[in-house]
Amino acid sequence: MSEDAVTEKDVRHVASLARVALADDEVDRFTTQFEEILDAFETLEEVPSVDRSAELTNVLRPDEKRDSLSPEEALENAPETEEGRFKGPNVS
Amino acid sequence: MTAQTVQQGELVTVIGLEVHVQLETETKIFCGCSTGDADEPNEHVCPVCLGLPGALPVVNEAAVEAAVKIGKAIDAEIPQETRFHRKNYYYPDLPKNFQITQYDEPICQSGELEVRVEGERRPIEIERAHLEEDPGSLQHVGGGGGIDSAEYTLIDYNRAGTPLMEIVTAPDFRSPAEVRAFLAELEEVLEYLGVFDAERDGSLRVDANLSIVEAAEADENGELSTEALESANRTEVKNISSHKGAEKALAYEETRQKNAIQRGRVVEQETRHWDESRGITVSMRSKAEEKDYRYFEEADIPPLQVAHWREEIEIPELPRARRERFREEYALDEEAASKLTSTKQVADFYEDLASEFDPDLAATWVADELLGELNYRDMAITELEDRLDEVARLVELVATDEITAKNAKEIVLRTMLDEGAAPDAIVEAEGLGKTDEGEVQAAVEAAIADNPDAVADYAEGDDGAINFLVGQVMQATGGSADPGTVNQLLRAELDD
Ligand SMILES: [Zn+2]
User: Fold this and answer.
1) Bridge partner residues of A85 (DSSP)
2) pLDDT grade, residue B7 (50/70/90)?
3) Distance from Cα A2 to the centre of ligand 1, integer Å
4) Where is the Asn/Gln amidotransferase domain positioned along the sequence (chain B) (predicted)?
5) E strands, B170-277, in order
6) Cβ-contact B466, B447 below 8 angstroms
7) Which of B212, B291, B354, B401 could be a cystine partner for B362, CB 3.0 to 4.6 Å?
């Protein structure tokens, strides 16, 4: 990855996918940071690859109902709610 | 279409589909929350389907079984190993910011389903079918309620995590009518398998790719080369929710693109939204490209190895096979056979009746009378599930000549459906038991005695006069006589 340097355009694209608004000075800052983060991850290339545990397949559960949360519990952490629903900004 | 018949500038429509169907399971695909109707929003939710940190998805065995059944029904291959992936995108209908789906190792590969349009059968290739989770439901509130103008969004995650099967076809369709026929056939097959409920709101959603290519690009078998297909700009039409809607949306889109080409304009490659109420497709802001979804393996779910289930899981006789058997076994015409196999329940009910009564009579009663009256009331046979024995009793009353077919349909069946009464009670209450022969004969003689003008008209060759006399007898017997018999008795008397 280090040979393809992170560009300002990459940062703006990733920000738009994540629906994050970035100011111009933040774009500069994140361009440097992305580069540093990707470099750090490069280290993982040195870790030898290991096969996953072969026996672990078909982890399934029977089609049986389990208790759900109550609507109150479900909405407990929501910053805003209305009529039992999570409330968020307009999206398009 | 063959190359010989191609004319200069002739255009061919090319359509491929992505069909999303909700699978009928008790619980969601990765958690034990109910998939049933909820009274309140956010009632069937838990840490898994809300995407709370640390929650672990575990695959519902019934959803995998349903997928294998579908694979078997569409003649698909179930690979040795199949796995789940994360499709990353940020939209509030997905609380995790990714959807668990299957990317490059789907559970069903290369199947096919045959469609029949205007008597011609054609196989449609199904490239793949995979399992995934349904997102939650959004409401765009304020500002007129449009997606773009809304002030805010309300989210209900009851639907989030409902198992979906996405079925992807090759670009094998050449007309919107073929698409509609395919979707109807697919719904029938899925209902036969017991994995799908067409009556359920939102149980079928379709995205369609449509492009227009020069017919001259086709080879002598009418096949279009990959290059021809790829060089044409296509649009993806989203938000189609029924087979009728699919035909309308694609007919609109076909005309729109052909008009553009004929005016020398370029069809833009874009995503369009089918606006059902306005009957048009509208351009949507361009969406992410495939690479933007940054698919990667879902490490929380170990791979599935279920290829051997294909042999172990039984599936019922499918609609096409059953249709053909009905035509042979019960000597039905194509239309009747097709109506009688339209759902598994209808077909099962017909076979029950045909084993007891005359198969022709049973066919008329199920295909024409029962389905006709149900259709008129916008009812499905499933709503009569517990009362099919009453319908069978009604057919028995007709088969054993206890009531006339006309009364059985016009009074008994309609009262059964509208008022929920049982057939014998209605026959009793309405006095519909067939009048005995002596009474009918007496009424025939009385009608002749009381209507000398009609009798004279008949004698002079006015055959219409007999209908008047039949009417008089029917009235006198309260409609319980058989009109055919009355007609014969009258003629016997008058022709003497
Ligand atoms: Zn849940």
Assistant:
1) A82
2) low
3) 41
4) 348-494
5) 204-214, 234-240, 270-275
6) no
7) B354
CA of A72 to nearest chain B CA: how many angstroms apart? 9
Q: Is the overall model pTM greater than 0.90, yes or no?
A: no
User: What residue segments make up the domains of chain B, in order of their start?
Assistant: 3-311, 319-430, 437-495
Q: What is the CA radius of gyration of chain B?
A: 29
Residues of B in contact with A74 (CB under 8 A): 42, 45, 50, 157
Give me the domain span that covers residue A17: 8-46
In angstroms, the CA B381 to CA B348 distance is 11
Reduce the DSSP state of residue B21 to 3 states and report it: strand
Measured distance CA(B160)–CA(B52) in Å, rounded: 13
Strands of B11-22's sheet in order across: B108-117, B120-133, B163-169, B11-22, B204-214, B234-240, B270-275, B280-283
Ion ligand 1 contact residues with beta carbon within 5 A: B 31, 33, 46, 48-49
The second-level CATH assignment, the architecture, of B437-495 is Orthogonal Bundle (1.10)
For the stretch B169-212, pLDDT in tens is: 999 999 999 999 999 999 999 999 999 998 888 899 999 999 99
B257 membership: H or E segment, kind and range: helix B243-262
Which residue in chain A is spatially nearest to B147 when comparing CA positions? A92
Phi, psi of B261 (to 5 degrees): -65, -45
Q: What is the DSSP letter of B51?
A: T
Side chain identity at residue B182, one-letter code: F
Burial of B400 (0-12, 13-18, 19+ CB in 10 A): exposed
d(CA B15, CA B210) in angstroms, rounded, equals 5
Contact B164, B23 (CB under 8 A): yes
ipTM of the complex: 0.87
Q: Which of B42, B81, B137 to mutate to test the interface with A (most CBs of A within 10 A)?
A: B42
Cβ of A64 within 8 Å of Cβ of B27? The answer is: yes
d(CA B323, CA B336): 9
